Amino acid sequence: MSQTPELIVKDLRVSVEGKEILKGLNLEVRKGEMHALMGPNGSGKSTFANTLMGHPKYEVTSGDILFKGESVLEQETDERARAGLFMAFQYPVAIPGVSVANFLRTAMNARLSPAAGEDGKVPHRKGIPPREFRKLLLEKMALLKMDESFATRYLNDGFSGGEKKRAEILQMALLKPEIAIMDETDSGLDIDALRIVSEGVNALAGPELGIMVITHYNRILNYIKPDRVHVMVDGRIEVSGGPELALQLEARGYDWVREEVASR
User: Fold this and answer.
1) Which DSSP string do the residues of 175-201 spell out, in sequence order?
2) Would you state the pLDDT for residue 89?
3) pLDDT tens digits, residue range 155-191?
């Protein structure tokens, strides 16, 4: 496991349309670690995920996000992705007319391409050869127990909730990020889909990947075992602990955390 955390978030404050949502958030994630970020609705979890990836709607008013030792605050979303940050969306968008395979090959080529020069132009790089890509795609689909026909379907078009989330995990498998943020991947999944998606995440977990699972239910953590659990309330991480913390939240809810914060 790496010594210096790949992702360091320092006293992050973020506003949306003038309203402060994140109020001094601190977090560190290393490659090889599995983190769960939990909290009630409206605590700022999705704001945090979107801010990490550079969504323009979210304004960082103070603090910093360091990825591999460098601040990413001035970087566009595609630069952060190329550097090795990844986000699996809570509500993946359908793109009719673009097959899963074409989308993934384009995404892979973008991930592998060099960064833009000072003139803003990205140097030309030959993409991954089709045969090599197909071999890799089928390999990862087999790992995730996905039918080969999935690759020819239009991305998320007519997909069930479980299929959309599996497409996100497949993207993660091919892009090989160093830190992956999974924003409420469990929302809208029945128990079978949840198990399949969780198996996919577990198959990808390893020393080269740090994962942060954002959720407000414990049920996904029955399948994905976190090393650390963090509880977010009102824009800050207020309590951190081991996997047992998730069980405590399931048994007691979030009110005790709020009470603890109020009594400080």
Assistant:
1) H--SEEEEESTTTT--HHHHHHHHHHH
2) 87
3) 999 999 889 999 999 999 999 999 999 998 888 888 8
R_g over Cα of the chain: 19
141's tokens: 């689909």
Which phi and psi angles does 201 have, rounded to 5°?
-60, -45
**Would you give the distance in Å from CA 225 to the centre of its chain?**
16
CA distance 233 to 104: 36
User: What whole-number percentage of the chain has pLDDT above 70?
Assistant: 94
Neighbours of 36 (CB within 10 A): 25
Q: What is the three-class DSSP state of 50?
A: helix
The residues near 32 (Cβ < 8 Å, ≥ 6 apart) are 1, 2, 206, 207, 208, 209, 210
Paired strand residues for 147 = none
Is residue 170 a contact partner of residue 141, using CB atoms and an 8 Å limit? yes
Query: The tokens of 160 are what?
Result: 């069930």
pTM: 0.90
Q: Are 180 and 210 in contact (CB under 8 A)?
A: yes
Of 261 and 151, the structure prediction assigns the larger pLDDT to 151
Which residues have C-beta within 8 Å of that of residue 152, sequence separation ≥ 6? 99, 100, 101
Q: What sign does the CA torsion over 70, 73, 74, 80 have?
A: positive
- Nearest 5°: the CA angle 170, 149, 223 is 40
Q: What topology does CATH give the domain 7-262?
A: Rossmann fold (3.40.50)
Closest alpha carbon to 238 in 29, 30, 23? 23
